[in-house]
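Hypothesis: this fold can be encoded by more than one sequence.
Test: take the structure tokens below, design a sequence, compare later.
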């Protein structure tokens, strides 16, 4: 399989121009709008990038400037990103659900000169920032709805800029090519935010040439070409979505499809029937939970077929095979229903996935593979081969990617460090952070892991999160949390126990599923808070915790838990924008609850502040029941510890 020569086409705009010249009428992008799929060919893709780039140049955007983008995944985002690259600017993606203060921090820190803001909601955030967005000279918006009364002189409608760019191209047809020719593979293309699990995210500098070369390396492990269809559902600021939408889209000419909205995402996915799919673990977990929720409303015979099919399929996959009977009974129809019938390759990454969820999709016939990487390494550098059942590893490293372990213990477990020739060049305006994480060419990941006997990487958890009870029992909170989240009723869980006599948990119910269960079982409720406080819901979750406990060693079992009165929320700082738990924030905010879990109290009281979607803050006071699990008596252990 041949890809563009990275020594010739060493920047993203150069690859785009090459594709447009070689395959002008081939479909590059597809966007659903008002129920209709609109196709963009490579020639049209280049034309929009060219017009936007020429208009940007006229606005004074050029080499070394930063262009920020915030909004939904769509054609205009991608084209605007490539237009910024064409004039030598760097791009910074911002998650669309980021609050004003988060947007303000990133825009101010990066010194963004122009911001592409998709709609009125995003424009309003920027305008309200005031001095926090002092560097922003231009705000380009895509959707005109609600913008008529806006008078900020920095505002520009994207469609108007594109028309202006077309005029500029007609006046000088060589201008755009000169801009693209002036770009270099050593130029920084993307400032990509890190996950920010402990503090503000850092901005990893990713040059054009390295991005392209690593995409080609990745494609060597998981080949793609112009026949592949991909549906973009994860946020574009995330490194892996950049790799697939921009990297694979340009290098492999994989067709990238954009759903109409988050609400229609799965229906749109089914209409396309992708051949390649990337979903975060939380989405795979949501799909599995939704399947079980729908079965609750099914007839008795259909519930029996579902349960029997799942059992047959899971048993077969554990024996290294697929169950033909389960496929005929259940999985073939499920794949079609979900839009997975044509999937040739599927991936999950960003955080660990529970083994039960992983095996479920393998049993269904979805060729799911786990990957591992960081923003600083330009995304993934390990990937499962899919040749055998492998729920414990993230596969071997790509060719040319080295992985080693710092300060390994007697079992070979140490901090994962890695290097390859196409990693980031450092953190933007953060030399101290660069020196801390990038030492002698090795990226220090902060994760603990080891190689198994077959040379596959096993990632245990964040080094700082691997905990030890007061009695010296080591455990991985993430591993137990993922086992809990296989339950359709558990949305999120935080396992506690570091320095404590036993393990406890703060659990958030999955409202969409538990509410359906409640309706079916005539459990009255008016809100998430009321539902999570109901005695029958507690009993339901206790059953799920007991099931997980049965598969854990005695000293790693959950002894007490409570159901949090609300869901963990990125707006409250409890999760990152990629849905990773910020354990430090949870430990600090819910310290009262944690202390109660390790006391003889039967309830826990919380008095804290929350942030609403519009940025308003409010004080919350709530009481939560504490439930014990198992036959032991945690109170006795607390007395011994005391």
């Amino acid at each position: 399989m041949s890809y563009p020569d990275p020594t010739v086409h060493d920047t993203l705009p150069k690859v785009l121009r090459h594709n447009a010249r070689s395959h002008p009428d081939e479909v590059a992008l597809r966007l659903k709008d008002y129920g209709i799929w609109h196709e963009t060919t490579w020639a049209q893709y280049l034309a929009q990038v060219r017009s936007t780039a020429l208009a940007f140049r006229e606005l004074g955007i050029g080499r070394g400037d930063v262009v920020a983008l915030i909004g939904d995944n769509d054609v205009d985002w991608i084209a605007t990103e490539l237009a910024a690259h064409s004039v030598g600017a760097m791009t910074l993606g911002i998650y669309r659900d980021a609050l004003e203060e988060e947007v303000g921090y990133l825009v101010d820190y990066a010194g963004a000169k122009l911001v592409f803001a998709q709609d009125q909601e995003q424009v309003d955030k920027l305008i309200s920032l005031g001095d926090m967005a002092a560097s922003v000279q231009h705000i380009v918006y895509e959707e005109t709805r609600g913008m008529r009364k806006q008078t900020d002189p920095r505002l520009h409608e994207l469609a108007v800029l594109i028309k202006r760019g077309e005029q500029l191209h007609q006046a000088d047809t060589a201008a755009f090519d000169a801009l693209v020719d002036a770009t270099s593979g050593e130029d920084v293309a993307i400032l990509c935010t890190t996950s920010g699990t402990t503090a503000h995210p850092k901005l990893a500098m990713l040059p054009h040439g390295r991005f392209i070369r690593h995409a080609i390396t990745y494609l060597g492990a998981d080949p793609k070409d112009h026949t592949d269809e991909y549906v973009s559902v994860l946020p574009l600021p995330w490194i892996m979505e950049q790799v697939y939408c921009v990297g694979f889209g340009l290098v492999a000419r994989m067709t990238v499809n954009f759903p109409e909205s988050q609400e229609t995402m799965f229906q749109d996915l089914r209409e396309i029937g992708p051949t390649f799919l990337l979903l975060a673990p939380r989405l795979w977990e949501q799909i599995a939970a939704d399947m079980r929720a729908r079965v609750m409303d099914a007839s008795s015979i259909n519930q029996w077929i579902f349960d029997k099919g799942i059992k047959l399929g899971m048993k077969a996959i554990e024996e290294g095979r697929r169950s033909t009977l389960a496929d005929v009974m259940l999985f073939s129809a499920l794949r079609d229903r979900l839009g997975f019938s044509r999937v040739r390759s599927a991936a999950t990454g960003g955080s660990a996935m529970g083994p039960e969820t992983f095996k479920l999709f393998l049993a269904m016939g979805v060729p799911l593979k786990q990957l591992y990487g960081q923003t600083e390494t330009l995304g993934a550098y390990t990937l499962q081969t899919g040749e055998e059942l492998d729920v414990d590893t993230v596969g071997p490293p790509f060719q040319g990617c080295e992985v080693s372990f710092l300060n390994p213990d007697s079992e070979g477990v140490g901090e994962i460090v890695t290097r390859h020739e196409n990693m980031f060049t450092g953190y933007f305006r953060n030399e101290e952070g660069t020196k801390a994480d990038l030492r002698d060419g090795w990226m220090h990941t902060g994760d603990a892991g080891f190689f198994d006997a077959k040379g596959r990487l096993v990632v245990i958890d964040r080094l700082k999160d691997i905990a030890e009870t007061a009695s010296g029992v080591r455990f991985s909170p993430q591993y137990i949390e993922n086992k809990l989240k296989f339950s359709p009723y558990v949305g999120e869980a935080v396992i506690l126990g570091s320095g404590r006599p036993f393990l406890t948990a703060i659990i958030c119910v999955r409202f969409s599923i538990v509410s359906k269960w409640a309706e079916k079982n005539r459990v009255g409720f008016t809100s998430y808070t009321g539902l999570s406080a109901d005695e029958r819901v507690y009993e339901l979750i206790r059953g799920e915790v007991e099931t997980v406990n049965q598969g854990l060693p005695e000293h790693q079992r959950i002894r007490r838990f409570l159901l949090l009165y609300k869901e963990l929320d990125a707006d409250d700082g409890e999760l990152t924008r990629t849905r990773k738990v910020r354990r430090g924030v949870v430990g600090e905010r819910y310290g009262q609850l944690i202390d109660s879990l390790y006391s003889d109290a039967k309830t826990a009281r919380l008095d804290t502040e929350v942030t609403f979607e519009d940025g308003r803050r409010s004080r919350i006071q709530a009481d939560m029941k504490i439930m014990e699990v198992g036959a032991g008596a945690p109170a006795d252990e607390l007395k011994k510890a005391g």
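The two ends are 66 Å apart (CA to CA). The first strand starts at residue 27 and ends at 33.
Hypothesis status: open.
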